[in-house]
Amino acid sequence: MKEGNLVKKGISGSTLKIIAITAMLIDHIGAVILEPYLRLPGHWTQDLYDLHYFMRMIVGRIAFPIFCFLLTEGFQKTSNIWKYMIRLGIFALVSEIPFDLAFHGVPFYWSSQNVFFTLFIGLLGMMALHWLEESGMSKIFQVLLGISAAVAAMVIAEFLQTDYSSYGVFCILVLYLFRKWRILQVPAGCAAYWIGDYYLFRMNGAEKWAPAGLVPVLLYDGRRGLKMKYVFYLFYPVHLLILHLISVFVLANAV
Hints:
Blueprint: H1 13-39, H2 46-59, H3 63-77, H4 81-104, H5 115-134, H6 139-160, H7 165-177, H8 182-201, H9 231-254
């Protein structure tokens, strides 16, 4: 291992991003196209249901933890944190209509917000923790204010009902706190995800496969890889809009 617990030769950040985007696409195909199709009278079959479960609950769940990790890396490596924050905020707004159309069938659905809002709030939480670390105040105040900032970020995510909401922000902040020790960061991130989903915030265990997404992180070697700065930002709203249109066509011709 190199300094910072990075493997000597592993996978790059762009490879992690491709893995996450692919898993997310499979998940959203299951959610936006297959799930409504299964609800149609006479179209439910066990095979299609099993396929839907595999796409959403196994493959699809690994995407978000990788995006959480990449967010913590982006926060540490960005040359301008304010531009990074503004970019996330802009795409959160841009993606909301495609997200609402894809998952709720209407252009404006106020009870659910897209994942960019979760990442944006997670970024604000990391900024607060970083400021506290650099503030020079006593450790006890850093810990107390850090806990307050983390709780505030999670409450905001829960109030806005963002995708992955409070336990998504919880996972981001835990990954950030363990950023200097990769060998501990991954199990800490897995624990945060399981605890956040199963015990603290959701209590249904629906995300039990999600921490598997952090396994490839162990092979991350710190390289950026391919220049894909805007790929995820653009892919997210565009693919949701396309899947919505495909779903409308499929459902219209299935009746």
